[in-house]
């Protein structure tokens, strides 16, 4: 049995929208791109055709990946979340002890990570260190750059 993939409501909607786009508009675009590339002649020496077919294969792989995720997901239920401890779907404000700067993270499943926007996986070093801890707790995270001390300032949704 496949491992359940944890998704937030936001992540689920985003995947469903991406799948709809890829199977509809993007597939039509790819068909046109391949048709145009075929019109350039000999397929054995046609780099535009090869590029279009490669792009199509990548797109189809992404469609299969999303479909697999949508068959094996578990929605994160945060309706009974009392914001007492960090868990999946929590927004956590932490203080970097070494510098005194603050950062906000949202703990998400691995399919929703977006570090540039503060979305980190519960399986990442920082995410896994924070999960289960409460406001006021200090956690140490073993990172590639050494130990990182974090103090949990706030937990929200």
CATH topology description of the largest domain:
Helix Hairpins
Give the CATH architecture of the largest domain. Orthogonal Bundle
- H/E element string? EHHEEEEHEE
Overall number of structural domains: 2
Rounded radius of gyration (Å): 21 Å
Q: Kindly provide the name of the CATH class of the largest domain.
A: Mainly Alpha
Number of helices: 3
Major beta-sheet overview = 5 strands, mixed
Class computed from helices, strands and strand pairing: alpha/beta
Would you write up a description of this structure?
By secondary structure, the protein is of the alpha/beta class. It folds into 2 domains: 71 residues, Orthogonal Bundle (Helix Hairpins), CATH 1.10.287; 66 residues, Transcription elongation factor, GreA/GreB, C-terminal domain (Chitinase A, domain 3), CATH 3.10.50.30. It is built from 3 helices and 7 strands, in the order E-H-H-E-E-E-E-H-E-E. The strands form 2 sheets. It has a 5-stranded mixed beta sheet. It is elongated and about 65 Å long. The protein starts with a strand and ends with a strand. The relative contact order is 0.16. The model has no long low-confidence stretch (mean pLDDT 87).
Quickly describe the structure.
By secondary structure, the chain is α/β, with parallel strands linked by helices. The chain has helices at 9-38, 47-71, 125-130; strands at residues 5-7, 73-75, 91-96, 102-108, 119-121, 138-143, 146-156. The strands form two sheets. It has a five-stranded mixed beta sheet.
Q: What labels describe this entry?
A:
alpha/beta, Chitinase A, domain 3, 2 domains, 5-stranded mixed sheet, 3 helices, 7 strands, 39% helix, 25% strand
């Amino acid at each position: 049995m496949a491992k359940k993939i944890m998704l937030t409501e936001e992540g689920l909607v985003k995947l469903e929208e991406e799948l709809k786009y890829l199977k509809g508009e993007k597939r039509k675009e790819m068909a046109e791109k391949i048709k145009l590339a075929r019109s350039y002649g000999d397929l054995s020496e046609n780099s535009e055709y090869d590029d279009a077919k490669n792009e199509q294969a990548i797109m189809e792989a992404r469609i299969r990946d999303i479909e697999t995720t949508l068959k094996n997901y578990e929605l994160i239920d945060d309706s009974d979340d009392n914001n007492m401890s960090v868990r999946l779907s929590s927004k956590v404000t932490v203080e970097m002890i070494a510098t005194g700067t603050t950062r906000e993270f949202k703990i998400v499943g691995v399919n929703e990570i977006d570090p540039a926007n503060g979305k980190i996986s519960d399986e990442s070093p920082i995410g896994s260190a924070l999960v289960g801890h409460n406001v006021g707790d200090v956690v140490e995270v073993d990172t590639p750059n050494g130990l990182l001390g974090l103090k949990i300032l706030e937990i929200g949704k």
